[in-house]
């Protein structure tokens, strides 16, 4: 099984495309090459395939890099399933993971939520989607400053608060406050729960 994240940038027409697209490309390049593993297409849509264990962490990394840009947000549909056909271009690959993800993004556009997951197990979907709806109330309201800190923590889990304070030229207590406001410890616990639920598939 694989995970496929299909997403689109919210408010992309009100932002400097070169800035967000460069950041997103640089992030996705950490995890694989384009166009086989990821692709940005139709201006502000993207697709990315990854292993199922880390999908929540990847989702958060993308969410935080986009939210660290002014006025931007991102909608993402996580599909988990098989890859029955692997093309040189991810947008031409196929299988249940791709179908789940693509259809779900259309649903998200109509229901107003920014993230959802679809697997072949309705019980797992129900549990994880309730969790994502609650969590999104937090994630969707991250400030740019909070998103930046969260992104650094996700991409470098060994980084210390002292390192973060130096990087952002703020005090360590400010770093600590931002992490508390972002409920970072709860995010880590949520990632562990996600991994556990997905391992049951």
Structural write-up:
The protein is 52% helix and 16% strand. The chain has 201 residues and is α+β, with helices and mostly antiparallel strands. It has a 5-stranded mixed sheet with strand order 2-3-1-4-5, with helices on both faces. Helix 5 packs across helix 7 (172-181). The longest helix has 18 residues, at 122-139. It is globular, with a radius of gyration of 16 Å. The relative contact order is 0.15. The model has no long low-confidence stretch (mean pLDDT 94). This is MarR family transcriptional regulator. One of its GO terms (molecular function) is DNA binding.
Characteristic terms for this protein:
201 residues, alpha+beta, Alpha-Beta Plaits, five-stranded mixed beta sheet, 8 helices, globular
């Amino acid at each position: 099984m694989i995970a496929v994240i299909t997403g689109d940038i919210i408010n992309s027409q009100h932002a400097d495309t070169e800035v967000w697209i460069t950041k997103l490309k640089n992030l996705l390049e950490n995890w694989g090459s384009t166009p086989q593993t990821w692709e940005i297409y139709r201006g502000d849509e993207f697709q990315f395939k990854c292993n199922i264990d880390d999908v929540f962490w990847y989702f958060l990394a993308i969410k935080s890099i986009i939210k660290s840009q002014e006025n931007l947000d991102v909608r993402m549909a996580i599909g988990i399933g098989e890859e029955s056909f692997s093309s040189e271009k991810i947008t031409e690959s196929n299988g249940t993971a791709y179908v789940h993800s693509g259809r779900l993004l259309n649903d998200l556009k109509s229901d107003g939520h920014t993230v959802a997951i679809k697997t072949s197990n309705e019980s797992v979907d129900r549990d994880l989607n309730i969790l994502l709806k609650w969590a999104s109330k937090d994630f969707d309201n991250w400030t740019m400053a909070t998103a930046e800190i969260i992104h650094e923590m996700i991409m470098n889990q060994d980084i210390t608060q002292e390192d973060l304070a130096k990087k952002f030229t703020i005090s360590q207590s400010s770093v600590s406050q931002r992490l508390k406001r972002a409920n970072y410890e709860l995010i880590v616990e949520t990632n562990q729960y996600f991994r556990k639920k997905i391992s049951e598939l």
